[in-house]
Amino acid sequence: QVQLVESGGGSVQPGGSLRLSCAASGIIFRINVMGWYRQAPGKPRELVAVITSGGSTNYVDFVKGRFTISRDNAGNTVYLQMNNLKPDDTAVYYCNARWEILGSWYESWGQGTQVTVSS
């Protein structure tokens, strides 16, 4: 019973920056992992970055050095700072949360926010 709401998408020029936010609400026991995925036209959804409750992060190679994922102290909001954006970054970006209840894993997805990088 977790809802995720993304914000911060938009249209920027190559080399520009955007900061995406994702806020979780609802009945939350514990969110272990939050992350960002994206889906470009004609492409499957792919992982962009994830962050665990312990602060460990992972990124897809294409965004390393340009994107930074972070999480607030409460662990219910995740951010994606996107710098030096490229046209190939154009996609719908989705927030994801995964959590555990008594040994069973669950996940929730946001509605997506459009990121467009073009001149």
Please give a quick description of this structure.
This protein is mainly β and 119 residues long. The chain is 0% helix and 59% strand.
Identify the notable features of this structure and list them briefly.
single chain, 119 residues, mainly beta, 7-stranded mixed β-sheet, 4-stranded antiparallel β-sheet, 11 strands
- Counted by DSSP, the helix tally is 0
Compute the average pLDDT.
93
Give the fraction of residues assigned to helices: under 10%
C-alpha geometry: elongated
The description of the largest β-sheet is: 7 strands, mixed
| Strand runs, count | 11
* Class per helix and strand makeup: mainly beta
What does this structure look like?
The protein has 119 residues and is an all-beta fold. Helix content is 0%, strand content 59%. Strands 2, 4, 5, 6, 9, 10 and 11 form a seven-stranded mixed β-sheet that branches. Strand 5 (46-52) and strand 6 form a beta hairpin. The radius of gyration is 14 Å and the shape is elongated.
Q: Which SSEs are present, and which pair or pack?
A:
Elements: E1 2-7, E2 10-12, E3 18-26, E4 31-39, E5 46-52, E6 57-59, E7 67-71, E8 77-82, E9 91-101, E10 104-109, E11 113-117
Parallel strand pairs: 2-11
Antiparallel strand pairs: 1-3, 3-8, 4-5, 4-9, 5-6, 7-8, 9-10, 9-11
